[in-house]
Amino acid sequence: MFFVFDGVDGAGKSTQLNLFADWLRTRGLDVDCCSDPGTTELGHQMRKLLLGNHAIEIHMRSEMLMFMTARCQLVEQKIRPALAAGKTVVCDRYVFSTVVYQGHAGNLDPDEVWQVNQVATAGLMPDLTFIFDLDVESASQRLGESRDRMESRGSDYFQQVRDGFLEEAKRWPDVTRVIDASGDIESIQATIRQAAEPLLEKRPG
Ligand code: TYD
Fold first, then answer.
1. Topology of the domain comprising 2-202
2. Selection from 124, 94, 122 nearest residue 1 by Cα
């Protein structure tokens, strides 16, 4: 099983991801958590370039390919081997982020981003992606003052990010679940567990 937690910045998805992973473990599953970009050494290096507040010029297409490079390494080095070993993988972000942040909000063609992702992941898709949704103002308040390179883009960009996620979720209703992140931690977690349950019941063995 491969689950992804994605969506707007500041929506609390990492907290929910950790609670979900703990719950899966109490059900006897062997769970690996990972972050995209991150988890591998190459991913950490790409993450520093992508999120660091530096003055290096990065074209949007370069940015997209750098996220894809980190993802390719993550898939080949961590996710695919974990799935092959029968583990359950829970990943913080994946393809929807690139389609939305660099595609919808970054003015690259979302369909082209999907195509590049197909190459980067050799077609590996999650069983279910939770898309955390929150209005731009609340998300911005939760983020606070200190911002990384991506988080420093203005509210127009983040409105496009939010709209892009919702549009993609509509396009892929069978493999996504929009999570209203304005609720309290417990009820959001309960919704996530309920959505995952049918998949967990279906899994072989
Ligand atoms: P995240 O790990 O959620 O950030 P944090 O550790 O600060 O919570 O995500 C990193 C940032 O990178 C986030 O702003 C979304 C952005 N991002 C993209 O723009 N494209 C991508 O393909 C991915 C995976 C992330």
1. Rossmann fold (3.40.50)
2. 124
